[in-house]
What we know:
Helix content is 76%, strand content 7%. By secondary structure, it is mainly alpha-helical. The chain folds into two domains: 1-103; 105-172, Winged helix-like DNA-binding domain superfamily/Winged helix DNA-binding domain (Arc Repressor Mutant, subunit A, Orthogonal Bundle). Strands 1-2 form a two-stranded antiparallel ribbon. α2 (12-55) runs antiparallel to α3 (61-101) and α3 crosses α4. The mean pLDDT is 81.
Amino acid sequence: MGLAKILFGFDKTDLEELGNTLSKVKAEVGRLREEIAELKARIDDCEYKASTALDIADKSDGAIQSLRSELDSLRGEKEALEARLEELEAIIASLEERSEKGQEPQDSDDAEALILSLVKTGIDTPGELMEHTGLSKGRLYAILRRLVERGVLAKRREGRKVHYVIVEEVNT
């Protein structure tokens, strides 16, 4: 453990790891933007089909209803992706700010949001989470325990490793 780690609670390696996490989250944001653009194109296509179907008198009500249902479903997917994108962009801003200052999240809500976003991106073991958040072991485990007790996260064992998963992902 270096002098910087002892004095400040972080060192160059911690900042590099934070940068790596930031890169992963930015990649996820890029992927979500592409998905949103694809869904928008599909929505536009579906809207065109729906309006064409309405204009043609001999189209059956079933086809129109099917298109409306597909359109509603696509809009729901798009809204969910946009919400996830906003969440990730807020996390990126927080990570960039922390990276500049070289500090761990002070607010428990910020730390919880950071942990949840990392778990969603596949960083799901306590060791990985400590590495990417800069949180102390005690603080990380307290937050994980709280999230499990609230039913937000579930704990899974694979051999000797513990992985955390988002509960809604477990139920789907």
